[in-house]
Amino acid sequence: MSAQAPLPPNATIGIVGGGQLGRMSALAAARLGYRCHILTPEEDSPAAQVSAAATIGDYEDPTILRAFADAVDVITFEFENISAAGLELLAALKPVRPGPHVLRISQDRMAEKSFLNAEAGVATAPFALIETLDDLRAAAARLGLPAILKTTRLGYDGKGQARLAAAEDLAPAFAALAPKSLILEGFVDFAREISVIVARGGDGAVSAFDAVENRHRDHILDLTLAPAPIAPETAAAAAAIALRVADALDLVGLLAVEMFEDRDGRVLVNEIAPRPHNSGHWTIDACPASQFEMHIRAVAGLPLPPAARHSDAVMKNLVGPEEAALWPQIVATPGLIPHLYGKKEARPGRKMGHVTRLFAKGGLPGEYGIAQALGPLAAAVRTPRRCRGGN
């Protein structure tokens, strides 16, 4: 594979999507001497607030897409709930990294799981495609209950899914979930959830960050511990899986691979996200080159430095109005590194920002110490329950 020519300084990177991931990507791009141009239907989006330009329009409007492509040198995206057909139109006009084929795989849970098993050769939880209620009954009998029923498309942060604990849950869940098709995923008896973020350049060079532990609350990522408190061989296995998936995708850009470590120490892939990821926000403060810089470097054709960390870290999301209201206390607390996303309205379940706390390498504290280190957020930190479950 030949290397792509690096983008020169002052070139413009187009980002499809206007959320916080685009915002932090644009800030990293500016540090490297690039301008960013955002495509989003939203006025005054978090990404547009810090970018050189923004096109406000629909992700599927050919006129909007052509005008956007004309204004940029290379294109990437910051979340998956965009139009794959629109991205393919853009790819006919300008380089798109990662490519539309990667987006199509990550947008559909059946396509994703099938790819991971058959093409990447990595293990996942057992799963089955559900088109009818009879399909669901047969799959539940085969995979067992409890299980998780999900839409194959458009779900995130716990949306578009239902936990099935008993046979009487099947019909109501099937009726409630839309759009069809659905996927039934068997539960994994896991010890913890982990993720690895890997950058891959157009020349095939790769750089992977340390595996981290992720803790969720109400299906939304709440806390990330970097590095994950896992055995070295488990961390190595997780990194190897992430690299294998990135290579199988022929990825150019950034990939987050979310995984379960089960009770026997096996690592199973849960899902993938081909863009910067919430579980990598700690890298902004704990690494010489953050996940966002790595993403921009890969998209722009720049060399990838080692994904090294100089510190251990805990990242805490600020979710909803209650935690957003703690902002005055957070910025007044020594040791907390605050990041706010510029969103006007704090709604329940909405990610408003995050806070990072750094520790000397090898100095990540225990459960009580983690909570206390987060100062005004200490009461919001929950000790994880190690139990049978899924996400």
What keywords describe this structure?
391 residues, alpha+beta, Rossmann fold, Dna Ligase, domain 1, D-amino Acid Aminotransferase, Chain A, domain 1, 3 domains, 9-stranded antiparallel beta sheet, 4-stranded parallel beta sheet, 17 strands, 26% strand, disordered C terminus
Shape: globular
Total strands: 17
CATH second-level architecture of the largest domain: 2-Layer Sandwich
Content-based structural category: alpha+beta
The residue fraction in helices comes out at 25-40%
Intertermini distance: 36 Å
Spans of at least 5 consecutive residues with low confidence: 386-391
Q: Describe the largest sheet.
A: 9 strands, antiparallel
The CATH class assignment of the largest domain is Alpha Beta
- The CATH superfamily of the largest domain appears as ATP-grasp fold, B domain
Q: What is the CATH third-level topology name of the largest domain?
A: D-amino Acid Aminotransferase, Chain A, domain 1
Quick check: average pLDDT?
A: 94
Strand content: 25-35%
Could you spell the SSE succession in H and E letters?
EHEEHEHHHEHEEHEEEEEHEEHHEHHEEH
User: What value does the Rg take, in angstroms?
Assistant: 20 Å
Number of H- or I-type helical stretches: 13
Question: How many domains, in number, for the residues?
Answer: 3
